[in-house]
Automatic annotation (TrEMBL):
It comes from Capsicum annuum (Capsicum pepper). The chain crosses the membrane at residues 12-40, 60-82, 94-112, 124-140, 160-179, 223-246, 275-293, 305-327, 333-351. One of its GO terms (cellular component) is endoplasmic reticulum. Pathway: Protein modification; protein glycosylation. It is found in: Endomembrane system. The keyword Aminoacyl-tRNA synthetase does not apply. InterPro entries: 3-oxo-5_a-steroid_4-DH_C, Dfg10/SRD5A3. Residues 211-284, 321-376 form the 3-oxo-5-alpha-steroid 4-dehydrogenase C-terminal domain. PROSITE patterns: S5A_REDUCTASE. Coiled coil: none annotated. This is Polyprenol reductase 2. Keywords: Membrane, Transmembrane, Transmembrane helix. It comes from the Eukaryota. PANTHER family: DFG10 PROTEIN, POLYPRENOL REDUCTASE.
Length: 376
């Protein structure tokens, strides 16, 4: 069952990546296909009025974040509750000895199977919880920005297939972060529902929450997971700044379709710094999970689930790619495919946005790159 879900997700990511990759190949033989794919990807200022037939208002972006928030919250709650139920009961006085045992390679015995494998399994679940927490932070901020920061022009549109792609993306990302044990979590949740139906609310056993046990997944995280979180926060903050800059360009301009060249933060380096930040965020997620799953415990660089990038991103990207090469035997393929789609999709959109800026503004800074500083 789990293998089937993982295979399905990987196939879906590959199917989504390939058309974009072909559209990015600079070949005249593929020009028709490139324009075909770009037609679906265009939105807002780069979408021509003649293309509005199969389009929806760009303000419907808020649907993506409402969906992502509800779905991520559901998965996070279910996964954390499952982790809580499978974590051995531990008294507070024994907590620190347990942590010491964990850090020195010892295993805490519980349940019927008292093996290192069960400990590894709980550790993987802990990382999934951590990734879902990061995803939650990202989508909550994006939801807030959609309501209070961005002032979409009434004429801003996006292609209906682009809208459907967004719904797919924000449905697939959260489940990709916990797909390796989603079936277990589903069965666990189903058993709780069945127990509730059979016994009823009044007969359900209500136990006092053991907070040490509840927070145990976060205590199992190692330094590379926290490094991924730091990269995530780095991109998260910069994307927040870049979105604030974009939002300020349309203050009190709801009925005005004029566009202005953005300046400040990473905009002095690239045309789409908010896309760059997103790549960094999702990359950090890939790293956190990929490194952790390594059976050899070879710790590599990592990154997390958010959507932002810093000004020296070119350096970070090189470091991360080098770590990926070294850590290629311990990465989760599903997460890498997720990140691959994010990169391909945002590079395509950033390239088109950059061309639009150059065509629209004669005074547009010629030293800006499309998305990767000093690279592209």
């Amino acid at each position: 069952m789990e293998l089937g879900l993982v295979t399905l997700l990987r196939a879906a990511w590959v199917a989504a990546i390939l058309p974009i990759v072909f559209a990015l190949i600079p070949s005249s033989k593929l020009s028709f296909f490139q324009q075909f794919v770009l037609g679906f990807a265009k939105r807002g200022k780069i979408m021509q009025a003649s293309s509005n037939k199969f389009s929806v208002p760009q303000k419907l972006f808020i649907h993506f974040y409402i969906l992502a928030f509800v779905w991520t919250t559901l998965l996070l709650a279910a996964t954390w509750l499952y982790a809580y139920s499978t974590t051995p009961k531990i008294s507070e006085p024994l907590l620190f000895s347990s942590i010491a045992s964990h850090l020195t390679g010892g295993s805490h015995i519980f349940s019927l199977q008292r093996s290192h494998t069960s400990k590894e399994h709980r550790s993987r679940i802990a990382v999934s919880i951590f990734l879902l927490l990061l995803m939650e932070a990202q989508v909550l901020r994006r939801l807030f920005e959609s309501i209070y920061v961005f002032k979409y022009s009434p004429s801003a549109r996006m292609h209906i297939l682009g809208y459907l792609t967004g719904l797919f993306f924000y449905t697939a990302v959260p489940i990709s972060l916990c797909c390796n044990h989603a079936t277990e979590v589903y069965k666990f949740g189903l058993s709780l529902i069945q127990e509730f139906i059979v016994k009823g609310k009044d007969r359900m056993l209500v136990a006092e929450v053991d907070w040490w046990r509840f927070l145990n997944p976060l205590m199992q995280l190692r330094w590379y997971s926290w490094m991924g979180a730091a990269i995530f926060c780095w991109g998260w903050i910069h994307q927040c700044h870049c979105h604030a800059i974009l939002g300020s360009l349309r203050e009190n301009r709801e009925d005005n379709d004029d566009y202005v060249v953005p300046y400040g933060d990473w905009f002095q380096y690239v045309s789409s710094p908010h896309y760059l930040a997103e790549i960094v965020t999702s990359l950090s997620l890939s790293n956190v999970l990929g490194v952790f799953i390594s059976r050899l415990n070879t710790h590599k660089k990592l990154s997390t689930v958010v959507l932002q990038v810093p000004l020296c991103f070119s350096f970070v990207l090189k470091v991360i790619y080098a770590a990926f090469v070294v850590a290629s035997g311990c990465s989760d393929l599903t997460i890498w495919l997720l990140w691959g789609f994010t990169v391909a999709n945002l590079v395509l959109a950033a390239a088109e946005t950059h061309r639009w800026y150059l065509h629209k503004f004669d005074n547009y800074p010629r030293n800006r790159f499309a998305i990767f500083p000093f690279v592209y």
